[in-house]
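Propose amino acids for all 364 sites.
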């Protein structure tokens, strides 16, 4: 270990950084299953059907794709109707994603085009490079890489650089003949975003499964398969919540109606903590005010007002230990304390499209 100081504004942040700590592997953990907990469920009665759902980074709401209505519905985080955007043509297929700068992308399998918009009714398009279904972006990427998964076996993940429109492909094993993938959400290690994404959750339309993948050198390993947490007719779309901790899942229920459920799936953070802490913030907002070696860390946060802020603590394996704060935060200084058994921990601050991380050690 070594002690490292970072300067940000008028603050000096002193933390302990672990060097060459091996990443935690989901396969090495001996984990036999991944629990999926349903936290809440909403019937989407304003849409005649649903194909996909995605979250929008600002002002933090959901976008819901409906081919039957030819619209993208906007909803708050409890799925209450907030507005709608008309799609330009007749549409088929799956896939909907938003960038952090609020550009919307969706797949139209009738024309094999990917359409995009700045959130208005004005659309442009470019040719789709693969027969994709579920779509997602990694957070905080620049240039943005759009990910889409091929719906039928043999599955592959296609990334499209939205600046050059160049593509890369990664193999993804499937589970059988009936495993049409319709929903996709991607994640990475806790601290910073890398590509390709370290972790993937996909869902199958007719076999009603959740597929969990991790990236290994040049391809994806299928590390777990779980049944959908409740009986459904079709499993459709997946997206992360604004803080990347929970998952929104869209589906057609056994009663023929369309629903969105909020899920707790402790998976993305099994990637472990990266060897070197880092940040996408232009300056440091987060610091430790007291010596954490005495069993308690005091975090100090100084930042402009943001709509939503999240401060999470993770252990060295990447498991979430404690949610220190989540919600709106006024400008100025704020402090929180954290106590835990001896070990190495990482604090992750998320505010709008920025991520800041720091490591610290608590001794006995």
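Proposal:
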């Amino acid at each position: 270990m070594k002690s490292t100081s970072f300067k940000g504004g008028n603050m000096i942040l002193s933390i302990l950084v672990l060097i060459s700590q091996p990443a935690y592997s989901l396969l090495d953990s001996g984990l036999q299953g991944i629990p999926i907990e349903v936290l809440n469920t909403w019937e989407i009665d304003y849409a005649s059907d649903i194909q996909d759902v995605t979250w929008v980074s600002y002002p933090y709401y959901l976008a819901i794709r409906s081919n039957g209505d030819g619209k993208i519905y906007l909803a708050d985080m409890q799925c209450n109707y907030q507005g709608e955007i008309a799609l330009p043509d007749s549409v088929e297929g799956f896939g909907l994603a938003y960038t952090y700068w609020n550009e919307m992308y969706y797949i139209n399998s009738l024309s094999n085009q990917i359409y995009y918009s700045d959130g208005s009714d004005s659309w442009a398009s470019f040719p789709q490079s693969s027969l994709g279904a579920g779509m997602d972006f990694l957070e905080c990427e620049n240039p943005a890489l759009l990910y889409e998964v091929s719906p039928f076996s043999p599955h592959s993940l296609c990334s499209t650089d939205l600046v050059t429109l160049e593509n890369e492909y990664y193999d993804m094993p499937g589970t059988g003949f009936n495993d049409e993938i319709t929903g996709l959400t991607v994640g990475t290690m806790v601290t910073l975003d890398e590509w390709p994404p370290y972790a993937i959750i996909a869902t199958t339309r007719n076999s009603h499964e959740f597929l969990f993948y991790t990236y290994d050198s040049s391809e994806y390993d299928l590390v777990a398969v779980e049944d959908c947490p409740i009986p459904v007719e079709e499993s459709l779309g997946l997206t992360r919540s604004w803080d990347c901790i929970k998952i929104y899942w869209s589906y057609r229920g056994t009663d023929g109606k369309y629903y969105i459920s909020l899920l707790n799936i402790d998976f993305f953070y099994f990637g472990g903590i990266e060897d070197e802490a880092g940040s996408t913030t232009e300056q440091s907002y987060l610091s430790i005010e007291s010596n954490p070696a005495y069993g308690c860390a005091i975090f100090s946060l100084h930042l402009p007002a943001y709509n939503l802020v999240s401060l999470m603590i993770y252990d060295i394996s990447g498991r979430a230990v404690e949610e220190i704060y989540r919600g709106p935060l006024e400008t100025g200084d704020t402090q929180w304390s954290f106590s835990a058994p001896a070990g190495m921990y990482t604090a992750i601050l998320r505010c709008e499209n920025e991520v800041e991380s720091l490591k610290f050690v608590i001794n006995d």
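DSSP finds no helices and 29 strands in the chain. The CA atoms of residues 232 and 360 lie 44 Å apart.
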